[in-house]
């Protein structure tokens, strides 16, 4: 029973780590986010993620590298 619980925990941790988003991947969108998104909470990871819809709506005003990141994470 303990082995099953440990195996499930290990599987959950490895699956979460494999799908983790690196902040460096979002770097191409940082200048556009600074211009177009709400910055009252600072330029944190969670604010950049919430900003994706705004950047997608203003896609003609962001760089092609940022559009590629938005496509990768399903915003475009």
Question: What this model shows, in words?
Answer:
This protein has 76 residues and is an all-alpha fold. It has 5 helices and no strands. The protein is globular and about 55 Å long. The mean pLDDT is 74.
Helix and strand topology:
Elements: H1 2-18, H2 30-36, H3 45-50, H4 52-57, H5 64-72
Low-confidence stretches: none
Helix content: 55-70%
Measure the end-to-end span: 45 Å
Number of H/I helices:
5
Strand tally: 0
Overall number of domains: 1
Strand content: under 5%
User: Which structural class do the helices and strands define?
Assistant: mainly alpha
- What do the pLDDT scores average to? 74
Order of helices and strands: HHHHH
The major beta sheet can be summarized as:
none
Silhouette: globular
| Radius of gyration over C-alpha positions, nearest whole angstrom | 17 Å
In short:
With 76 residues, the protein is an all-alpha fold. It has helices spanning 2-18, 30-36, 45-50, 52-57, 64-72.
């Amino acid at each position: 029973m303990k082995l099953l619980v440990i195996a499930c925990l290990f599987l959950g941790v490895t699956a979460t780590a494999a799908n983790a988003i690196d902040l460096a991947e979002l770097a191409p969108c940082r200048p556009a986010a600074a211009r177009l998104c709400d910055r009252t909470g600072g330029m944190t990871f969670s604010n950049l993620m919430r900003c994706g819809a705004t950047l997608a709506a203003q896609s003609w005003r962001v760089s092609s590298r940022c559009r590629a990141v938005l496509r990768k994470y399903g915003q475009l």
